[in-house]
Design goal:
The protein is built from five helices and four strands, in the order βαβααβαβα. The protein has helices at about 15-30, 55-60, 80-85, 90-100, 135-155, and strands spanning about 5-10, 35-45, 85-90, 110. A four-stranded parallel β-sheet has the order 2-1-3-4. Strand 1, helix 1 and strand 2 form a beta-alpha-beta unit. The protein is globular and about 40 Å long.
Length: about 160
């Protein structure tokens, strides 16, 4: 059986998308499904390529027993669009950028993280980089909700 491959994307790949990657990995691990998934994250820009996740984001995630271990990288077009089954942007600008990078924007692979929320009504995952502690907590709250919804969607979709 092929693994379901998910790529989470934000602007710089140091706050939101590595957190989504870590939350999703933690969730599938808790459900005994790690062998069924390949989960990664990337940034629209390569500004932070080679760097670990933001230290503040890491601290907030650790408080929830979630470890951000990924190293930032930039989205690779067309390779990522061919390889991954799901490419998930964090906000409207990420979505626009993903569609412009996609060699074929009719792939149906691109979606927005908050589309999978079942409890939060946010229309995007806000960038916490220039804010305080509450912003990092809100990002994790939204991502935990959205990753649960995404996993349920994938299980129902059969992919």
């Amino acid at each position: 059986m092929d693994k379901t491959k998910i790529l989470f994307v934000c602007l710089g790949n140091i706050c939101r998308s590595p957190s989504a990657e870590a939350v999703m990995k933690s969730l599938v691990d808790k459900n005994g499904m790690s062998n069924s998934f390949e989960i990664d994250s990337a940034g629209i820009t390569g500004y932070h390529a080679g760097e670990p996740a933001d230290q503040r984001m890491q601290r907030h995630a650790i408080n929830r027993n979630i470890r951000l271990t990924s190293i930032s990288r930039q989205v690779k077009s067309p390779d990522d669009f061919k390889y991954f089954d799901y490419i998930i942007g964090m906000d409207d600008q990420n979505m626009e950028d993903l569609y412009s990078l996609s060699p074929n924007d009719k792939t149906g692979k691109i979606s927005k993280m908050t589309d999978y929320c079942t409890q939060h009504t946010n229309t995007s995952v806000p960038d916490p980089y220039y804010g305080g502690a509450a912003g990092f907590e809100l990002v994790l709250d939204i991502l935990e909700d959205a990753c649960e919804g995404l996993l349920n969607y994938i299980e129902q979709d059969g992919k």
